[in-house]
């Protein structure tokens, strides 16, 4: 376990997180109940698992639920209702990797019903989402809402936040068939819209 952990740590320093994560998982399997195995696993989760969106944060209400796979990490793309104050260099951090240094992955202009449309590039059975708010200016996410669509034209409202939080654990009691998800503000007064991360879980058709 210690040898595997050392190899994994070396890969992390080379920014080879995917390869490192495989070794951290092997280290845990080698010593699942021992102090070394547990310590290496906790470290691996922090430096590789969470940046890769391979594990959920501690305390997430989604832990222990049947979520399926991460649908957004390797396949999804998104478009924005507007792009004022936006930096495309940060877009990749919405679905994978560590958080953007700016604290947000995208940034719309101040507008009514600001939103993004996420394309999963194939019809999926969506079961859950983990949406991470921007730490600063969090109140701008008031009225955060989720819509789904098969064709990107007809939309069905699936969820709305009851309060502003640092993140929202959204578990859909009935899985939703969708290719497109719209995440945005359901308000008629202009506001900026920005999020740190969106992770979508479920099953590909």
Summarize the SSE layout with pairings.
Elements: H1 2-13, H2 17-30, H3 35-49, E1 69-70, E2 77-80, E3 115-133, E4 144-149, E5 156-160, E6 167-185, E7 195-204
Antiparallel strand pairs: 1-7, 2-3, 3-6, 3-7, 4-5, 4-6
Helix pairs in contact: 1-2, 1-3, 2-3
Can you give a write-up of this model?
The protein is of the alpha+beta class and 205 residues long. Helices cover 20% and strands 32% of the residues. The chain has 3 helices and 7 strands. It has helices at 2-13, 17-30, 35-49, and strands spanning 69-70, 77-80, 115-133, 144-149, 156-160, 167-185, 195-204. Strands 1, 2, 3, 4, 5, 6 and 7 form a 7-stranded antiparallel sheet that branches. A hairpin with a 6-residue loop joins strand 4 (144-149) and strand 5. Helix 1 (2-13) packs parallel to helix 3 (35-49) and helix 2 packs antiparallel against helix 3. The longest helix has 15 residues, at 35-49. The radius of gyration is 18 Å and the shape is globular. 35% of the residues are buried.
Count of DSSP E strands? 7
- Contiguous low-pLDDT stretches (5 residues minimum) are none
Provide the helix percentage. Answer: 10-25%
- Strand pairing plus helix content: what structural class? alpha+beta
Count of individual helical segments? 3
What is the beta-strand fraction?
25-35%
Largest sheet: 7 strands, antiparallel
The ordered string of helix (H) and strand (E) elements is: HHHEEEEEEE
Overall pLDDT score: 95
CA-based shape: globular
Q: Cα-atom Rg, whole angstroms?
A: 18 Å
Question: How far apart are the termini?
Answer: 37 Å
